[in-house]
User: Which sequence fits this backbone?
């Protein structure tokens, strides 16, 4: 199914454009409009599944890559909201701006626990990726979260990870290996 092989970009990364840029096709704003609308899909807005959000999908005609434009309030591949995760991480990792932990349902608590566990598992990978952008060498999950928060709110952190490093806070994009169509084009030259 084509939904499995798509990259999720942040809506704020469009910066005025009506569609995302594909890594292989150049910048849409520079006139290389090789990314076309390819419909949309619905995704649950929260863990209870009460509301759905329509997510637009685009397809690059050069490499066949699908790109979905995710609202800034949503985490890639997770039903829990960005603000809830930020508040939970701030409380868990004792960030200066931390208030009390967010009040939430049992389902949300489970999602937040899994998100914190996944973040702790990705600490090494994220610190390797960020390199000298963070001050601590070999940070713990708490130290890494405090370093990331120096960049700003979680929405900004997610956009930076997506744009600069082509990854996310809680997981790598599986679809970022070169597509078969692009590999065939490159191999034919």
Assistant:
């Amino acid at each position: 199914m084509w939904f499995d092989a798509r990259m999720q970009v942040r809506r704020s990364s469009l910066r005025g454009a009506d569609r995302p840029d594909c890594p292989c096709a150049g910048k849409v704003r520079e006139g290389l409009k090789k990314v076309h609308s390819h419909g949309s899909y619905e995704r649950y807005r929260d863990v209870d599944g009460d509301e759905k959000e329509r997510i637009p999908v685009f397809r690059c005609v050069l490499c066949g890559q699908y790109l979905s434009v995710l609202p800034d309030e949503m985490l890639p591949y997770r039903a829990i909201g960005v603000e809830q995760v930020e508040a939970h991480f701030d409380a868990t990792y004792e960030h200066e701006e931390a208030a009390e932990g967010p009040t939430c349902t049992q389902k949300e608590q489970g999602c937040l626990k899994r998100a914190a566990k996944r973040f702790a598992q990705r600490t090494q990978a994220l610190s390797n990726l960020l390199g000298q952008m963070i001050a601590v060498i070999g940070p713990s999950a708490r130290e890494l979260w405090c370093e990331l928060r120096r960049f700003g709110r979680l929405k900004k952190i997610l956009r930076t990870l997506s744009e600069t490093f082509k990854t996310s806070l809680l997981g790598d994009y599986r679809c970022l290996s070169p597509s078969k169509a692009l590999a065939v084009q490159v191999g034919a030259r």
